[in-house]
Amino acid sequence: MDFVVLGGGGWGTAIARLLARKGHRTSLWVRDPELARQLSAERENKKYLPEVELPESLEILSDLAQASGRGEAFLLAVPSFATRGLARQLAAIFSRRTSPLCLINLAKGIEQGSGKTMSEILREELGPRPIFTLSGPCHAEEVGRDFPTTVVIAGEDLELGRKLQEALMTERFRVYLSDDLKGVEYGGTVKNIIALAAGISDGLGYGDNAKGALIARGLVEMVRLAIRLGARKETLFGLSGLGDLVTTCTSRHSRNRLVGYRLGRGESLQQILNEMEMVAEGVYATDAVRQLARKLGVEMPITEAVYAILYEGARPLNKLTELMTREPKMETL
Known about the structure:
Elements (H helix, E strand, L loop, with lengths): L1 E5 L3 H13 L2 E5 L3 H10 L1 E2 L3 E5 L5 E3 L2 H5 L4 E4 L3 H15 L7 E4 L12 H9 L4 E5 L4 H4 L5 E7 L2 H11 L4 E6 L2 H23 L4 H21 L4 H4 L2 H12 L4 H10 L4 H6 L6 H16 L4 H11 L4 H9 L9
Parallel strand pairs: 1-2, 1-6, 2-5, 6-7, 7-8, 9-10
Antiparallel strand pairs: 3-4, 8-9
Helix pairs in contact: 4-5, 8-9, 8-11, 8-12, 8-14, 8-15, 9-11, 14-15, 15-16
């Protein structure tokens, strides 16, 4: 298959490298022309994925219209807050050419304000067409170095999904298939919020007991919200839910855990974000998920605590105390 990867961050670069190395005709679109020139010349994304060599067969482009004429399948590897804007640009371009076979979202988040998932945004802007989301525990730093990784691709067209599954799989990158698009997308969103909480706990100097509890109760919040929105419970106990949750809460590569850690150490959110090159999706997801949960009447106390720390200036230690001293309850989902 012919693939176009849209977005030159670490994850976009890693997945484009994987596809090109497997032998697919692959183009990587990068918004910044200077970064595109650097990638083409040096065959390395020093800014977002250093010390990972890019194959010569990988085409690097900064012209979106040119890139859009290349592929059958488009993988959107931009942050969630940039997805709608990119989709609108693509809609104008696709109206003048044959539409691609499918779109694959790689972002893990929902839209602030509307609470819509990335697949819902893509349908709104680009009309009815096959849309998939690829998710799971898949840090770019490891995929780019061919460390064993297992993910899930979810969509409604399972026949096409099987073709994509086969196209993406390598001996170091295993892909499962799901038709529970909602479950995969909400799992990938909520896990970033819980990773912020896990990082805050680390920053406060607490240990494995606290982190284990945050992961377990964070999974409860994930399941509650996703089921309320029509997902299947079993999906949240899979790769895009529990698998990604554990990885993001514990990994040294996790940007969300790092943001939480620095918050727990007493740094301000603005200072942290000003110093980051890449996006911590959980910062945006916390606001969007909290709004959605309140609208639906879904209880999510960890999410509420993280929101208070991020957006209301609450002290992390105070919010932890509030979580620990809530009224006693039965352990249920």
